[in-house]
């Protein structure tokens, strides 16, 4: 089996997921994982599929006619994409969750991701939105992230760095280690 990562984007309308799923299925493919969303009138996402090795070229070719409906870019994945950690170093990583909430302004994601990277943490998943704050006026930025924490990382130091950053960018940041 071949693992492929599909990135998709197109004007939001009914039937987009079905059109993509039909092509994958017609080649004996399996829809393994996806993150899809409507963002600013566009339907966008990423999908991991597996397909028999002998069907990969035909699948790639049959995804091209979806342009106009969905622009699809096909990337080669690795067989262990959805599976367990592939090396002892990866297995030593643990997960943590981070929540961010505050008045919206440019630079929040840049600042938080910079603090995470400086401490060796890698973002595994990130969801964010900006919403109206009717009682306070203005707009609120809210984000939830899952991060990979190396075994040798000092979570107390990460927490201190994030607390200091929270004061600088005027947001609330909470770090919660996932239970082992």
Description:
With 180 residues, the chain is an alpha+beta fold. It folds into 2 domains: 2-76, ACT domain (Alpha-Beta Plaits, 2-Layer Sandwich); 91-177, ACT domain (Alpha-Beta Plaits), CATH 3.30.70.260. 27% of the residues lie in helices and 42% in strands. A hairpin with a 2-residue loop joins strand 2 (30-39) and strand 3. Helix 4 runs antiparallel to helix 5 (155-169). The model is unreliable at 82-86 (pLDDT under 50).
List keywords for this structure.
180 residues, Alpha-Beta Plaits, 4-stranded antiparallel beta sheet, 27% helix
Q: Return the CATH architecture of the largest domain.
A: 2-Layer Sandwich
* Total domain units: 2
H/E element sequence: EHEEHEHEHEEHE
> How many beta strands in the DSSP annotation?
8
Radius of gyration over C-alpha positions, nearest whole angstrom: 20 Å
CATH topology of the largest domain: Alpha-Beta Plaits
- Straight-line N-to-C gap: 32 Å
Short description:
With 180 residues, this protein is of the alpha+beta class.
Could you give the topology of this structure?
Elements: E1 2-11, H1 16-26, E2 30-39, E3 42-51, H2 56-63, E4 71-76, H3 88-91, E5 94-103, H4 108-118, E6 122-132, E7 139-149, H5 155-169, E8 171-177
Antiparallel strand pairs: 1-3, 1-4, 2-3, 5-7, 5-8, 6-7
Helix pairs in contact: 4-5
């Amino acid at each position: 089996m071949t693992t492929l990562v599909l990135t998709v984007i197109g004007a939001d309308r009914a039937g987009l997921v079905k059109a993509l799923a039909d092509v994958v299925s017609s080649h004996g493919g399996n829809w393994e994982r996806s993150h899809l969303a409507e963002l600013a009138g566009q339907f966008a996402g990423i999908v991991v599929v597996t397909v028999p090795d002998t069907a990969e070229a035909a699948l790639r070719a049959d995804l091209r006619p979806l342009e106009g409906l969905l622009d699809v870019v096909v990337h080669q994945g690795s067989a262990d994409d959805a599976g367990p950690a592939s090396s002892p170093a990866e297995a030593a990583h643990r997960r943590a969750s981070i929540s961010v909430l505050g008045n919206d302004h440019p630079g929040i994601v840049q600042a938080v991701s910079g603090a995470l990277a400086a401490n060796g943490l890698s973002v595994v998943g990130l969801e964010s939105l900006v919403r109206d704050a009717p009682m306070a006026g203005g707009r609120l930025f809210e984000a939830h992230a899952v991060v990979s924490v190396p075994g040798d990382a000092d979570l107390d130091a990460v927490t201190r760095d994030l607390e200091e950053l929270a004061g600088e960018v005027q947001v609330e940041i909470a770090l919660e280690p996932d239970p082992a």
